[in-house]
Each structure stands twice: as structure tokens, then as C-alpha cells.
Amino acid sequence: MFFRTNKLLILIMVECLIVGCAVGARDLPKDFSSIDAKERLSLSDFSVVTAKLTCSQIDDELEILESDYALQVQSIEGERQQNQVAGYID
């Protein structure tokens, strides 16, 4: 009985692996930024609100994003040692 249960469990695990690997990869996003990109962004690719932003407003948004990014990196680096130790203990 024990051997039969293990055999069934192994068979189920192998089938799960096969099914999990059978899914194809998602399509890559469109390439707009490379030198040889076949498509270019147009104004219609943006929301109305985004399309109406001025250059200075876009610069302000970028500064906010860069500041948020720096804070997140600082937070991650500050907790890295603690998280690594917790990973070893778990």
C-alpha cells in the first residue's frame, strides 16, 4: 500500500511538471526604443492627461519617480541583512 501511494504521488508530481512546462512564454512587449525598432510611439499611444503634460511637468514627474526609487533602494539595502538572516533561519 505504501509503495503504491508513493508511486501515485510521484506520477502526479511528474504530470504537474509536464503541464507546467507546456505553457508557452508570453509575447515580448513592443519595441519602441531600439535603434532599429519597427514601430514608433505616437500621441495616440498615451492617455489624454499624459499627452497634455508639458516638458517641465514631465521633468517634475521624473524627479518624483527618481526620488521614490532612491528611497525604495535605500529601504531594500537597509533591510537586506535582516531579510537574508530570516531566509537562512526559515
Mean pLDDT across all residues, rounded? 83
What overall geometry do the principal axes of the alpha carbons give?
A: flat
DSSP, total strands: 0
Radius of gyration: 25 Å
Helical fraction equals: 55-70%
User: Separation of termini?
Assistant: 33 Å
Largest sheet: none
Number of separate helices: 3
Structural class: mainly alpha
Low-pLDDT regions: none
Beta percentage is under 5%
- SSE order, as H and E? HHH
Q: What would the keywords be for this entry?
A:
90 residues; mainly alpha
Overview of the structural elements:
This protein is mainly alpha-helical. The protein has helices at residues 2-21, 48-51, 55-89. It has three helices and no strands. The radius of gyration is 25 Å and the shape is flat. The mean pLDDT is 83.
Write the layout of secondary structure elements.
Blueprint: H1 2-21, H2 48-51, H3 55-89
